[in-house]
Amino acid sequence: MDRQHTPDTARLLELDRAHVWHPYGPMPGTARPLLVESAAGVRLRLAEPVGGHRELVDGMSSWWAAIHGYRHPVLDAAVRGQLDAMSHVMFGGITHRPAVELAAKLVELTPEPLQHVFLADSGSVAVEVALKMCLQYWRSLGRPEKHRVLTWRGGYHGDTFHPMSVCDPDGGMHHLWGGVLPRQLFAAEPPAGHDAPADPAYVAQLAELIGRHAGELAAVIVEPVVQGAGGMRFHSPAYLRALRELCDAHDVLLVFDEIATGFGRTGELFAADHAGVSPDVMCLGKALTGGYLTLAATLCTGRVAEGISRGEVPVLAHGPTFMGNPLAAAAANASIDLLLSQDWRAEVRRIETALRTALAPCAGQPGVADVRVLGAIGVVQLDAPVDMAAATAAATEQGVWLRPFRDLIYTMPPFVSTDADIAAIGRAITAAAAASTAATRAHAGTGTG
């Protein structure tokens, strides 16, 4: 992995280390990032070779967003065309075609009776808005005591404060804020297995917890079918149906966080479709614009919107500066139209089959605890935390970009990935798992781990 830096590359990387704070990283940085100079299709072109490769297959879809890959001509044209009209205009007292058409599309595509769309800047803000909707709804109805939120452990909903309060309280960094965040209610993790039958004992636990706290519960929020950054765990859609019935029975709102799962990633357009149920509030993001620009959406039912509008403050108290950004909305419209113009379901099934084949060699490999695939999601779980340096080096040696976390080496490839791309990703994950396990054991043997 020796690199010969050009003077400009070396200067940029030094400036990056001194001034740029990367996600979940220290300052100044300790790990040298890869400098990407361009991207096209499913490949990232680097400013300098790494592992003998100038281009890497992107196995991450840029954190699950770039479902159509990079420099797609349809999305490029949509953004360029919107630039000719306007790049941005405030959304207070003003509206515009891209945002109106996007809202109408989202209402048409999402489960009924979701009818109203609030456009936000990011997934975390979409969750903030969703929880604010639920809290304000009950305040508007004269029931401010319904102010807490229930979720299950193993979840992740974002890094701003209210979303952090419903992330797993022990599994991530958010425990640092335990004395500051609102105190929410947590059920146990849903039993694993997308195809497993529902566990009646677990459903009974949910029923007991929701029933006991119904008087103070504003909402239940979960990631449907797939828990993403909290652990990449899959669960039965039956638990979503159980939550819908329990929330209806106890007068509690139900929120689905589909930021990671929306737009086909799990094999259905939305993960809620696996269960055939609809939430009262739904959050969307990530793949919404095909990874081109930051944009998220929070949808709600007429019941929620009308309840808020009957309150002492009859407006939703939220308004981002870049709400409804025309460039982002134009990209989202183009991305959705592009997805629906193709047999995306067949493409996701193809990727699922290819991932099962590509990851099969990991099963039974030393240090591997589990291998699981659902839709265009492939996960290898280790029996110890990933050695990031060893795993990343092994993946790039195979010509693939991966971003493991905790004990997981996983992929969410773009839907335009070929079978050859998926095979390469599989080889990279297999190599990364082996390298991480070897490094972990070597550290343990020398007492440095």
UniProtKB/TrEMBL annotation:
Pyridoxal 5'-phosphate binds at residues 123-124, 257, 320-321. Pfam families: Aminotran_3. CDD domains: OAT_like. The keyword S-adenosyl-L-methionine applies. The record marks 24 as: Participates in the substrate recognition with KAPA and in a stacking interaction with the adenine ring of SAM. PROSITE patterns: AA_TRANSFER_CLASS_3. One of its GO terms (cellular component) is cytoplasm. This is Adenosylmethionine-8-amino-7-oxononanoate aminotransferase. GO terms for biological process: biotin biosynthetic process. Catalyzes the transfer of the alpha-amino group from S-adenosyl-L-methionine (SAM) to 7-keto-8-aminopelargonic acid (KAPA) to form 7,8-diaminopelargonic acid (DAPA). It is the only aminotransferase known to utilize SAM as an amino donor. Pathway: Cofactor biosynthesis; biotin biosynthesis; 7,8-diaminononanoate from 8-amino-7-oxononanoate (SAM route): step 1/1. It is an enzyme of class 2 (transferase). The modification N6-(pyridoxal phosphate)lysine is found at residue 286. Substrate binds at residues 63, 156, 286, 319, 403. It comes from Kitasatospora setae (strain ATCC 33774 / DSM 43861 / JCM 3304 / KCC A-0304 / NBRC 14216 / KM-6054). It comes from the Bacteria. It is found in: Cytoplasm. It catalyses: (8S)-8-amino-7-oxononanoate + S-adenosyl-L-methionine = S-adenosyl-4-methylsulfanyl-2-oxobutanoate + (7R,8S)-7,8-diammoniononanoate. GO terms for molecular function: adenosylmethionine-8-amino-7-oxononanoate transaminase activity; pyridoxal phosphate binding. Its EC number is 2.6.1.62. Belongs to the class-III pyridoxal-phosphate-dependent aminotransferase family. BioA subfamily. Its cofactor is pyridoxal 5'-phosphate. Homodimer. Keywords: Aminotransferase, Biotin biosynthesis, Cytoplasm, Pyridoxal phosphate, S-adenosyl-L-methionine, Transferase.
